[in-house]
Every structure is written in C-alpha cells, then in structure tokens.
Amino acid sequence: MVKLLTARVPRPRTSVHQPTRGYRVFQGVNGVILTLVVLVTLYPFVNIIARSFSGERQIRAGEVTLWPKGFNLTTYKIVFRDSMFWRNYGNTVLYTVVSTVIAMVLTTCYAYVLSKRNLKGRGVLVGVAVFTMFFTGGLIPNYVLVTSLGLKNSVWAIALPNAVSVFNLLVMKAFFESLPIELEEAAEIDGLSTYGILLRIALPLSKAVIATMILFYSVSFWNSWFSAYLYMDRTELMPATVYLRNLISGATTGGNAGAGTDQLSQVGANIQAVTIVLTALPILCVYPFVQRYFVSGVTLGAVKG
Amino acid sequence: MKNTGQLSRRQMLSAAGFVGLAALTGCGSGGDGGDTKDLSKKQNGAMKEYRVGQQFKASKPISFSILHNNNPVYPMKENWIFWKELTQRTGITLKPIAVPLSDYEKKRSVLIGAGDAPFLIPKTYHPSEVAFVSSGAILPVSEYVHLMPNFQDKVRKWKLEPELDSIRQSDGKYYLLPGLHEKVKSGYSLSLRTDVLGKLGLNLPTTWDEVYDVFKAIKAEHPDLYPFSDRWSTNTPFPAAALLSYLGQAHGVKAGWTYDNISFDTKAGEFVFTGATDGYRQVVEYLRKLVAERLMDPESFTQTDDEAVQKLLGQKSFAISANPQELVQNYRYNLEKQVKGAKIEMVPVPLGPAGPVVMGGARLENGVMISTKALKSDTFVAMMQFVDWLWYSDEGQRFAKWGVQGTTYTYSGSQYKLEPGISLMGSDPDAPKDLQKDYGFFNGVFTYGGSWALVSSSFSPDEKRFQDAMAQRKQLPIDPAHPLQSVEQEQASLWDTPLRDHVTQNMLKFVLGKRPLSEWGDYVTELKAKNMDRLVGLHNKARERFKKENG
C-alpha cells in the first residue's frame, strides 16, 4: 500500500522546471530502490501463486520459487469441491457487504454531524468517539456484552461492534470540514432541508472520500477474522479467513505439546497456497480500480486552504 | 472558559465509562451456590447401577454442550456417523461449539472468563487448567470420580495414582480428567538414511556414542555437508525441542519440550534446578561436540521445519528428528519419490548414561475439564457417567477410535481392520472415504489413551517396531506431588520465566560455541542471581507440606 502510494507521487513537470543533475541522480537512485522494494513485495505473491499450481512434492522439496514446478490444476479442483470453503467464502462476502454498508451509513452521518462547527455538544460527541480509541472494555466484557445482546452467531456480532472506526471517522470529518460552507448556505436559502443538504450537496461532492472509506472498511472486514472466531459457534458461520487461518497455523503448529501425535497430519502446502490465492484474489482485483480515489481521498482533507 | 467546560464534560464521560465497565466486568463472575455434595437431586437421566463393562444408556434423552476443537485435517461435520451412533447408544446428544484448532486456547479462556463455557471442555493439556482454578469456573473433578467406575478401574489397574498426584493443586484436588495410558507411548526419536549408512558399512546406532561415530563417518564421506540438520525449533518455546527432549531422556533429565525448571533428584531426595544439573550439562556438552565438529547443522536451532525437511530431501543432510507419522508420511514418502534407492528408518531412542529408561509421568494425556455450571444441572450424574463411558470405558474408547463394527471396521484375531473403501491418515490413498473426515472417528477430541492393545492397534509397522522397543524400557520415577498454593504459584511464575529463558539462551550459546563451557560455573551463579535457589526451596517446601497433609 505504502509503496504504491510513494510510487505515485507526481513528479514535477519538466516543462516548468529544468531538472538539475542532482535531481536526475536522485530520480535514478529513487527508481532503483523503489523497484527493489516492489520486487521484494511482489515476490511472496508470485511465490504463492506458483505454489498453488505446483505439486506437493516440489513444494516440500523447496523447488518452487517464481514458476510452478510439477504444474497441475488438481489442487484447485480439490479446493473447489470443498463445500465448507465456499460456504465460508459466501459468509465473507455477506459479512463484508453488510458490515461495510452499516459502517458507511453510521460513519458518514456521524462525521457529517461532527463537521458542523455550530453544533452544541460537539466536543462531547468527539470525545465519545476518541475515548474508544484509547480505552476498550477488554475482551471478556465485550464478549459478555455481545452475547447478552443476543448477537452471537449472527452477522450483527461482526457488523455492529466494528461499525465506526474512529480513524475513518476523523478522516471523514476533516474532509467534510473542508467543504465550503457557502455552498450549504446557498442550498439552505434555496430551501433544502438539513437532510437534503447532506444527500444532494455534501455527499455528491464527497465521492472521493466515500470511495476511500468503502475501500478501508471493506478491506478490513474482508481480512478480519477475530470477531467471527469469537462470536460464531458453528463452522458453517465462519468467514473464509478463519478457515484459512485454521488451515495454515493450525496445521503447522502440530508439535507444540509434543504429545498429541494424532494432530500432526498436515494439510498439503499446495492446498494452503490455493486457499490463500482464492481468499486474497477479490481484494487484489478491486484494489487497482479504487486506488485513484484512495490516493486523492486520503490527501484530501489533509491540507485545508 | 470554554476549555474548562469541555474538560469537565469529558471527565464526566470517562467516569460514566468506568462505571459502565465496572458493571460489566462485575457481571462476569456468576454467584456460586447450590448444594455441591448432595447429588440425589441431580440424578435425572442417570443409570441407577452403572458399572465397569456396562453400556451407559441415559434413561431419557439428554443433551450436553461441548467445546469442539475443529481440526482442519478433518473439519467437523454435523452428519458424522459418530454423533448419530453416539446418541443411539447412549441417549446423549452432544451440542458441539466448533472452535478452530489454531486459536482453541484463546476462545476457551474467553468462554470460561465470560461464564459462557459449555459443560464439557476437552482437549485441555495440563497445566493449562491451573489458570482457571482460582476463578471457580472449573469443577474439581477429583471430588466426583466416584461416579466414574471405568476411570477408577483404570487408575487402579494401571497404578496411575502417582501420576494423578502430579496434577493435584494445593487443595489436594485435581481439576482435569486426564487421558489415561496403560503404557508410556514414546513419540520422537532420531531418523537416519539407512541406504547412506549401508554404503558406508554402518549399522543403525543404538547409543549416543554410536550416533556420534555414525555422523563422523558420514562427515568423512561428505566433508562439505552437515550429516544432521534438525527441526522443531520454531513454533515451540525451545529450540530443537524434540531432540533435546529425547536426548535429555537418555541422560535422565527433562529438556526440550519436556523441560521443567524443577525436577526431582531421587538420590538426594529433593527437588533440584534442572538447568543446573550434571545431566543437563552433559546434554549441552554432547550437542556442543556435534556442532563444534560440524556434524550438526547450527541452523538446526533456528530454522523452520520446512527448511530442515528440505535439506533432508535435497540430500544436504542425512539425519533428522522424527515421529512415526512424519517418518512415514513426510520423509519416506517424499524421499522415495525424489531420491532413487533412498531409505530412512527411525531408531529407538539411543541410549545414554541413564540406561534404558523412559521419562515418567508420560502416561497422562490431555483431558476434559468440566464447567462448574454443570454441577447445578439436574443431569450432572448422567453427564459424569457419560464422560466415564465415552472417554474411559474400553467399549467407548473403541467406539471413538474405530467406529462401528461391520460399518467402519472389522475385528478378528486381535486385529482391527478398516472396511474396504475407508482410509485412515493416508493408509489407502485410493479409498473414497476417510475414517476421520467422513465418519468422525479417530477424532483427537475423543480418541486418546487406553489400553496398550487399543493404542497399538493403529500403529504402522514402523511405529509398532519403535514402540515395542521403547515399551521394554524402564519408566523413571515420577516427581512427587508438590502443589503450590496460589500466592506461591504467583511468586513461582515470576521467577520461572526469566530462569527458563536464561537456561534456553545459554544452552544455545554453549552449544553454538558463543560461550565456552568453562563458564558453566558462572552460568550457575547467574541462575542463582535469578532466584534459582528460592524457586527450588519453594517447591521443596510445598512437597513437605503436601506429604504432611496427605500422608
């Protein structure tokens, strides 16, 4: 993420400033270093993809680096046949969509309210949000709370407790604050209600930040596993991340107690690779398309003029 | 002006927050109560006369909640014959809460801490139950084993009392129903490339001196390679955890993943500090010799399992630690595909100064904790009888392991054979069904321990040879019971970890040659500065007290 950002920092236009020699050297060095960083970051991806197409034996023998050895599609077929994986995959999609929608509605409303300087009790509202950034109730109280609200084993246990991320809230608030107040005053004079201003003036002007927040939220919900693991009691309710985590760390920590040899059977390295590829794929596919909003969205609101 | 106003509001807010928190956490610990001794009102569904050798059958259908460790190798399915058949035989329906194996312990703690734990909490390794004792959320099961005839019978028959004493807490009770083994089942030993040995005219080593000679001979043939590169160094708190544990066993000390700061010196009749004993020093010296003469790969202590296995498969090393399953399914399976004529065997643990011995206390397995809530239920007695039948009766253990006779297995001439078309851990790669994955038997949650006949019934030929050889060896005596009181326990754990870390770090330094062995004395002095003697004293005191109070 960081690398992509850095790589996209716009260069000074050559027509305006003639680049000095030092600057060209700097560019060269910069280019080389960044290319290396990109290669280092890309390698694990490529390696995992190569592994997913390779034979189990070749992976175990450490022969697979950038290109599949012992090419086969059988592993994909095996994973495709695993109904529990797809069930969990479906859950991931469901949880991500529902949670992101809820999170977006709540965060946008909250941030918009906070951006109004004339609001009474604004300090308290900010305080409430920021308080949760520094203090949490802790694992067990949270668990007791969610359980006694009857949210366990439902999508709400994942969507509601994580609905407002304070960091996202503050970024959005800063963005709304940067919208010219004159626009809203004009809209008010023209007869728009408060909600009308939000829906017809503020939001259409905030596409960049909304896209960024959708990306932030959906990526984090897609990748999250902990709340599902904590609040779901049945395998068919788990998201794909929990499935994956169990597959990888569960299968490789076998010898920790030195006792239960029955747990030592391993899940094939190629099956792990295929599962990783399939789980990461959607996010990887979406990212390039949302990325330009992402860059502008994060920097917007940062500089006010 | 404005600022102060805001501040006070914030203060009010945080105060409100804290009150809320306190209220929430306060709710966590539910009230105790209920008559614990009188079981006459808790007989619902129980059998009036339940004895050894009798099939448990609840007098009416009941269900119990159970924490289920969901193994990715055989993910839990609701249509397993196991569940259906269990209900049919016992009248009990288990309601599993599936927890991924990767984070089982954490969820267990949360559930117990939140007072939301299911009645049955299996797959608990001693001493992880100790953390829950003070909360009162876990039942002191030793008070109720009179409801469990099979458990008592096996403890008596196999003389397991001393082992059970080792898991008692300072109140003299134990809180875990451990798996019971008739005989010690050894897990790990050294495996070597027999074809390489054969070419050099060498036999499989039987003592650690011979191991050294064999490595020396391989080194002479392949001067630029390390004959031995080991694994089980990551994902465990100890480097080369398996090697150290069986090498330590040959020297009569607890090392590697069996390491414990405290061990009992039978000759002196008192507890001593393991990391400062002569035996431990000999282990370190032996490994130093291997590393110094470049017979053992120094990366053995840091590399991942995969890296170690890759060296073996790539013929960059010729020996590695093994357990029977890894030997067959991983090393041999992959070696045969990769290297023509490659053969690999696992030797019975080579003998050392301690002679033909195995560690004591290894006859207890992980086991079942029972939630205190269960005691308040009117079906408590039925539940204990059920637990006794499923985990401790011969019939229950056979059922959990092999399944249903005629459906999943046949039994003749004291041999268990899977029905055609059913595979177990790759025994028949072409079989359409798998005993674990498709039927739910041989599940680590329910299957462990038992008579030697049952335990050995699933051994591969390699494992059978290995276990038979190991079963001949004498069991070292078990440490006498020395349960600490909770204040002592807290004190001990403050001392324990730094000492353990110091032992591990210095073991590595000595072995890798970063610290000369002549500094062993200094090392012991450093241990003393870290309260070694006080820790040992604490345990000796606890032992005296336990002896006085419990005879």
- Helical coverage of chain A, percent range: 55-70%
Q: What order do the strands of the largest sheet of chain B run in, or round the barrel if closed? A: 3-11-4
Strand content of chain A: under 5%
CATH superfamily of the largest domain in chain A: MetI-like
Textual characterization of the structure:
The complex is a heterodimer of chains A (about 300) and B (about 550). Chain A has two domains: about 1-70, no CATH class; about 80-300, MetI-like (MetI-like fold), CATH 1.10.3720.10. Chain A has helices spanning about 1-5, 20-50, 55-60, 75-80, 85-115, 120-135, 140-150, 155-160, 165-175, 180-190, 195-205, 205-225, 225-230, 240-250, 270-300. Chain A is built from 15 helices and no strands. Chain B has three domains: about 40-185 and about 365-400, D-Maltodextrin-Binding Protein, domain 2, CATH 3.40.190.10; about 190-360, 3-Layer(aba) Sandwich (D-Maltodextrin-Binding Protein, domain 2), CATH 3.40.190.10; about 485-550. Chain B has helices at about 1-30, 80-90, 105-115, 130-135, 150-155, 160-165, 195-200, 210-220, 240-250, 280-290, 305-315, 325-340, 375, 380-390, 395-400, 435-440, 450-455, 460-470, 485-510, 520-530, 530-550, and strands at about 60-70, 90-100, 120-125, 175-180, 190-195, 260-265, 270-275, 320, 345, 355-360, 365-370, 410, 415-420, 420-425, 435, 475. Residues about 1-5 and about 20-35 of chain B have low confidence and may be disordered. Classes of the chains: A mainly alpha (about 300), B alpha/beta (about 550). At the A-B interface, helix 6, helix 7 and helix 14 of A face helix 1, strand 2, helix 3, helix 9 and helix 11 of B.
